[in-house]
Amino acid sequence: MGIFEYAPAPESRALANLKPSYRPFINGEFTDGSGEPLKTVNPATEEVLAEVGTASQSDVDTAVKAARKAYEKTWRPMPGAERAKYLFRIARLIQERSRELAVLETLDNGKPIKESRDSDLPTVAAHFFYHAGWADKLEYAGYGPDPRPLGVAGQIIPWNFPLLMLAWKIAPALATGNTVVLKPAETTPLTALVFAEICQQAELPPGVVNILPGAGDVGARLVNHEDIDKIAFTGSTEVGKEIQRQVAGTPKRLTLELGGKAANIVFDDAPLDQAVEGIVNGIFFNQGHVCCAGSRLLAQESIVDELLDRLRYRVSTLRLGDPLDKNTDVGAINSADQLSKIRDLVETGEAEGAHRWTSPCPVPERGFFFAPTVFSDVHQSMRIAREEIFGPVLSVLTFRTPDEAVAKANNTPYGLSAGIWTEKGSRILSIANRLRAGVVWANTFNRFDPAAPFGGYQESGFGREGGRIGLEAYLDV
Ligand code: NDP
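^ thats the input. predicted complex w/ NDP below
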């Protein structure tokens, strides 16, 4: 059967209200940062989108001071029911401006508009609504009658879900009475700065939220700042370890959400077409730039050939290209650096003897793109089975027995997520219990809800985000 040809259906770029320049947000105002300005690029076209002011050491000091003052004078003393009103207001403004934010996210990040519009933005708003609901009920959260906030939180987020990671960090911090200084990733600062506008629109008291664009050095300054009470970081395991070393021996609290190499386990009784959809969603959603991506497919040996046939056919139907086109399934890789990292690891996979299949889809000449790729005949010792590729590349391994599946799934320094595909409910429960992963999906993948805690084991980090347990990361308990 042939594939339907779709006419182009581009979303209007004008909706993003793109400005030529953006500035750091400190103490309720946009201010000229005294760091070296950076240029943020559209990864789908390589054009410069905007110039963004960055924070220097003195800007970090000013922002932390503003956050401390807002914490002491305004935010901590404010009754939870009042804090909740601000969070509800922010949530509603995000919904009102969601189209603008979705287009801007897609321009700055390269992710398909259908994902930023239908997945990221609704989940961002949901996070603020969910945590708004907690703000006046903290005494019923199971942390004692009067749980206290920690103080000023320094938050550092990556580029793969810029606004969603901001929401995961800011919503619980504010609901529990903390103030924040947040550093977005160098390559995706724009939606965080529009979020700062939303804070102004919501009349959030100055200093409660501060946004400092910049490179890793701004993050490092936050980590080392003596007047910060808590660091929340999402990003690579390498930087996470560095941060942990720096925070060790200080009174700062720390939560780390790091990399992953999740096993997506398909048993021989699984509904294969559904499993194929879950595998595709698990690794090609957001170009595979997902810490909990199902990047290792573990297929039971008796069905691997049939599963791979169906998978390759399905993957060959994915449309790669302009992220603003509403029909696009796979958008652009976020940066030239990330693209070269993916290419290097894929070359290693070939050199180590795995069998590479890459979708024959056309790849645009300009921009950073990588066609969906599936490696079969992968062995556990290969780098593509061990390291986080963080791109649209799946490594397929096989197993014969449930015990072997569990052993292979757990054979990783990470432990963020896993998937199980089988018709047997009892098997789901027994396997899930034995997987060392923070989140285990059954007959689905990549489902998120603000009420469900998310976080890892081992080198995937510690601490949970979301749900009641996620509040603990911002409370003195
Ligand atoms: P990083 O861990 O370097 O970036 C995450 C955030 O930390 C960014 O805001 C970054 O700033 C900041 N940062 C960098 N260095 C420091 C430091 N020393 N102290 C404090 N903050 C710092 O990830 P990369 O973007 O470099 O991606 C590299 C790899 O990490 C990817 O290929 C992928 O494998 C993995 N990764 C995993 C993520 C996950 O969610 N688990 C998310 C992103 C990446 P800046 O923006 O300037 O880099």
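Residues 113-134 form the longest helix (22 residues).
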